[in-house]
């Protein structure tokens, strides 16, 4: 019988005997803290315990999963799975029954009521606010608050207050005061851009922000383009600022812009703002010229690098790709015929030794193998996290089967992170790897002295999922 068939037999038998159980309430109220526990007949035999909600894996620690602030979205079916040791080299999988959990509403949204919806002028208006608690939570104390928005011109009138004892034996009123709500005219109109007007890049979103230093009431904001006399749009709102968004900036949007504001006491206009659209660099064109029909050792070859559309200023650098380990080497010895700012640049390069084409041919025919790239994901710093490797331009994870401090030592050495410190589970570094992401290394058998993880012996078993991803912690940061 194969290992997979053995595991299936024990899983079915364990489920029938309820070897693993889940403990959680059937319902709770909004805002409650709910603790979900899973336990087996012998917890010492549990190697890994996992919680699920509607079939989706839930990150948890030890044998509990906590819902700290229950809400309607937490209502669902919950169950647990455990991988337990059955024999020395055989593991079994256990699963609990599914428990349906419901989050009940603590109280419905309160209702604000009044004696009449259309009071006459001079009459008083009483506002009431109320809601209903469930019987088993009737002792819950609620605090009621009444809110009122900003005061406007139409709210002018007499205001007073009243103080009363609990027994109503003493009641006193303040003096009545007439409040005349004055409307402040708008002033100090200002137009700003996000990003700043000299940092707008083609393809980005441009936001024109029109604001006033002073002004109350409903204000009508309008945006205009000065050079084309084009009206871009307007908004009316009770605010001292408003925004107009241009989703995608093009080179044709460069020009002068202004805005106006009016709250009924006179229109004011901002100063014009000149918006410059910068064109990002694209793939540059490299050309070269030689004195004769072909370049010979000792000749001066002029290399010209240029981007005909990108906006200045720009910085150009030259590289020599003829390097043994595949990393381009920057040519520091160069002389610019044009300053670093501008759309074109060129430099002189004196060829020495073998011709360039011959060196390139040697590199193409070499059999140097490069180790796969490696990285830490979702850790608190660059020397901790889930271990991932790159193969054929795709990033994949490493299974924790056989993963120990020797493997961590190799990864820490490869990434320049010092000595190995700990071997945590990769699922602790959220978010977990996506299901479509491959597991490139199933079992890595390292002796701890390798310079790279690719040098470790590997066993291809292909039975690992992302719940078994390997993690690593190094001393260096």
Structure description:
Helices cover 7% and strands 38% of the residues. It is mainly beta. Strands 31, 32, 33, 34, 35, 36 and 37 form a seven-stranded mixed sheet that branches. The chain starts with a helix and ends with a strand. It is found in: Cell membrane.
Question: What's this entry about, in short?
Answer:
The chain is mainly beta and 477 residues long. It is 7% helix and 38% strand.
List keywords for this structure.
mainly beta, 477 residues, Ig-like_dom_sf, 3 helices, seven-stranded mixed beta sheet, glycoprotein, repeat, Immunoglobulin-like, 7% helix, disulfide bond, cell membrane
Mean pLDDT: 78
Termini Cα gap = 48 Å
Shape: flat
How many strands, which pairing sense, and closed or not: the largest β-sheet? 7 strands, mixed
Quickly count the domains: 4
Count the DSSP helices.
3
CATH architecture of the largest domain: Sandwich
Please tally the β strands and state the result: 37
The helix content is: under 10%
Oligomerization category of the chains in this entry: single chain
CA-based gyration radius:
36 Å
| Main structural class | mainly beta
Portion in strands? 35-45%
